[in-house]
Records
---
Amino acid sequence: MTISRRDFLKMSGMFAAWTALASCAPNAAQTLSPPTATLAPTLPPAPLEDDALIVHTLRRMSFGATPAMFEKARRLGLEAFIEEQLAPEAIPDDATEKMMRQFTTLEMTAEERFKLDKRGLPVQELIAATLLRQRYSERQFFEMLVDFWSDHFNIFIGKSACRALKTDDDLKVIRPNALAKFRDLLYASAHSPAMLVYLDQADSRAEAPNENYARELMELHTIGASAGYSQQDVMEVARVLTGWSITGLRKRRQEFGSFYFNPETHDNGEKHALGMTIPPGGEDEGMLILDLLASHPSAAQFISRKLARRFISDSPTQGLVDSLAQVFTQTDGDIRALLRALLASDEFKASAGQKFKRPLDFFISMLRLTDATITSNARSARRVQEYLRLLGQVPFTWSPPNGFPESQNYWATTSGLLDRWNFSNLLVSNQIRGVEVNLDALTADAASAEDIVDVLSLRFLGELLPDDARSIIVDFASSGNFDEDLPSIAGLILGSPHFQMR
């Protein structure tokens, strides 16, 4: 392929502009280049107020805050908007639900999915359905919470029968309980056939207790590794949970894929775990352990810290975590109450520029804010997912039980940022088959290079670019024909450090 002199100069100019933009980080203490630097956030002198707070809050509560969302939040008031998002069942979302009808495996039983000739179809459809919900749903905060809890109770969809079981975990465990009491979510997860298979609990029996689920139940799901439990506690909890299995695992005459407590494989002896003596009691022994973990002071700290890390900062203050943990304890782990307190905190209001978008956040926000349309066929959906795979975060594909990393240091690598820039330019240039972005419609009211930069900044960021970043992109836009260079201008904004932040 030959490249014209103009195209070469244009690409050189774009790369030079992108390199210059890398130093225009949203926070003076944060620079996305070099990525190996320690990224220590510096708080603004005071929490944000009024419109800036709306912009900041909606960025954190959604996969991409559209102009319609900003307009609604301003009209209702931020507090009322938050309350509406915390009651997703009352938000009409018919268009998104209609999209779900194309995915036949969502309505199947685990047995039906397990017997499909196309073994990968349930995996493909669950991932596609998840991405479409994140892209189109009006219940944006709910989808953010579903993503959070899917990471917290991570299940690798590629492990054995999880390909057929994870759909039920998503539809019957995570989604119904994403805004419930933490205790209810923990109960549901502990009875999830997908979780029991993924962490080998379904095979645990009295003569050979498997410790995998018992360990992750404490370390990753409830009280955290620093809670002070011992290896003996892990062994005893594993004994408690023997017999927690699923139907059809060994006896194929049973319908496959439902939770099943098997008294024949349960260890009926007395156990001593976490300072508690547990008398023989069958399945009730496990419920005692779940109750103990759900109400444990370390669980209040652990869950509060994880939520603060996702929605406020990679390094939340201990004072903030303590205040959230107090809400957790007082409300018996009410997730809605915990989120209200989090969003109302001064730390949240002062955290603009402190959260880096993980690849999934970046990918979905770009689709939402460019108003990209995706051809509704399986081939186009798979093609788009391939770009997400290259960025590094396809839902349900993280193999270890700890979920996709949260830290900016993990994702803000040179190659990762370059991949984002490449994807943004391909997207806005309409070079991804089956996906279309209409930049002319987004900039219909712009009459100059400055107008285009400002209109696209407001569209993509919810606010104008700071002067240093704006001047770099305006200079690039003014150096050629800004009508022809419109995709390049959009690509620079989307590839800038400012779009990388939530």
Note: Residues 5-21 form the longest helix (17 residues).
---
Amino acid sequence: MTERQKILVTGASGFVGGRLVELAREAGHEVFGLGRRPVAQTPFAATDHASDYASVDLGRVDPADLPTLPWQPDAVIHCAARATPYAPRKAYERDNVAATATVLAWCAALGSPRLVHVSSSSVLYRDGDQFDLTEDSPVGPAFANDYARTKAASEDLVREYAGSWTIARPRAVFGPGDTVLFPRIIAAAEAGRVPRLTGRTEPAVGDLIYVDNLAHYLLDLAARPELGGVYHLTNAEPVEIQALLLEVIDRLGLEPPSRDVSLTTAMRAATVLERVWRILHLPGEPPITPYGVGVLSWSKTFVPDRMLRDLGTPKVSVAEGVEAFVAWQKPRL
């Protein structure tokens, strides 16, 4: 077990940050969480830890209004971000870039504690298949979407931090509480809008990471200031993406896709819809986005050597993670 720490977690009301807070407390760490949601809308409201949480919008807050912490943190794990595949560009700039700048300034005022910045593997994405990506693979100058572009910009800010830092790039986080990956597929399946995408000679494969594995890795990184630079965090077991999603749909008792759509047709439709949403400033998200089509259709795999060498093997397999997610999701349908 790592030494007990005092840890500040941003994004504590979100999927990853919330689970991180829970597991960190179970491990004996003292944790203070920040999140955009009021405390009454978080799991912390029903516990003894409501006073260890503050509702703060880091992309909008005046630095003078940041909360006073009960102690000097040993580490800050910055999970807060705009992680949806579609949003107004200003929202990504505010929640991914401006918020990170606020956290960095706050860290400097707190004595430059160890900083673990949760970025995204999407900073590397290009159209088409990408195999065996490493921490040294090039970032930019073109990006898959505004989310990836602003996460790359946030990484640039972190690299200028005077204290000890590391950048974590998780790939496709899933598990109980998921708000991004599986829920969109499930909603589309319930509405009968999930097709089988065709046009590949070989199935698209990709890496994922179960949320508990990610949380444990982030805690390990927070406790080890000697580990700097970038870490790609995955379950180290690539899977066939469409096959996995079809399995989840089936195990949840939802109707399987009944029509075939080519990758080219799906991408054209998604591109048009996203443009219409932006031009007309329509609320919510388009039914499909080019990024979403790419997730289902293009292979993205990562070399996990650095993670495995320094942080060890994942504790929960993909199959075990899917089992936990299905058990959590099924009563909610």
Note: The chain has one domain: 6-179+206-240+300-332.
